[in-house]
Amino acid sequence: PALGQLADALADKAVEFGAIVKPGRTHLMDATPVMLGDEFGGYAAQIRESIERITSAQTRLVRLPLGGTATGNGLNTPPGHAARVRELLTERTGVRWQPPLHHFAVQGGQDALVEASAQLRGAALAMFKIANDIRLMASGPRTGLGELMLTELQPGSSIMPGKTNPVICEVVIQVCAQVVGNDTAIAFAGSRGELELNVYLPVMARNLLESVDLLAGSCTSLAKKTIVGLRADSERCRRLAELSPAVATALNLEIGYDRAASVVKSSLASGRSLVDEVVETGLMSRERAAELLSVEAMARGTQDHLTAQHRDA
User: Could you report the per-residue pLDDT of 98-140, keeping only the tens digit for each?
Assistant: First the structure.
């Protein structure tokens, strides 16, 4: 439920920010323009895919190796005992517990726990990326990117009056680091199944449950205390997109890559806009240059790769 809440909050922002154009960035350098809504739509999709992977892993967590006794061959187990215990557990927990495909596989190894932890780690890494991206886009307010504005949860630092730090994003990032650490311990413990028994179930269970609790709490905090109240400076986003030399990419088909690169270099040297520079060089009319260098058109691209639902949003 917590991951779903976060995915929904991100999807809502994707719609809210759908018409805002901003500079794209690759390698932390200026790249072709994107729509802010597309970025948040991508974040929502990351979380939803994490939910799908975790849900798939759950189907293997419900296979209980009851009745295998010491080595997995069921010696001294009363007939029907394991099935009856699974029935009672199902009645009490509401979870449909299943027998293992093979007792030796589940008693000598703990692959289902390793898989589940790996999927939690995947969700944590997606959250890490999202929280860090928001932190970068909200950096500033004067000397950073300044594209997003965070809710002021902790206005003022211990020494700098009026400073607002991205505290929830930083908490989430630290939680994600802990989940990755827990997964490393679980993976190591999962490899320690000597012959017929893996005795490291306690540390695996402890770390897995902690990862679940940490991710659930941080998802809720990120959704409610950061994503819901997040605002965008649409004017700054657009201004930065128009200033980016990467918009010259749209000139490639018209004047060729080499000439476009030359226009970028001369524009940076002269301080003129790309439109002014390309007109000054006599390569095309102002109207054609403005048409080609429209940041909205570039940001939307063909959008053939987007789903119909996403395009509508």
Answer: 999 999 999 999 999 999 999 999 999 999 999 999 999 999 9
Give tens-digit pLDDT for 55-100. 999 999 999 999 999 999 999 999 999 999 999 999 999 999 999 9
Q: How far apart (Å, rounded) are the C-alpha atoms in residues 137 and 109?
A: 44
Give span(s): CATH 1.10.40.30, the chain: 244-303
Q: Strands 21-26 and 148-149: what pairing?
A: unpaired
Question: Is the four-CA dihedral 253, 256, 261, 262 of positive or negative sign?
Answer: negative
Catalytic residues: 27, 157
For domain 244-303, give its CATH number from 1.20.120.350, 3.40.470.10, 3.30.530.20, 1.10.40.30: 1.10.40.30
Domain spanning 2-75+83-152+162-234: CATH 3.40.50.150:
no
Taking the C-alpha atoms of residue 227 and residue 231, their distance in angstroms, rounded to an integer, is 9
Residues of the chain with CATH 1.20.200.10: 2-75+83-152+162-234
pLDDT of residue 311: 47
15-18: long-range pairs with CB below 8 Å, 24+: 15/313, 17/232, 18/313
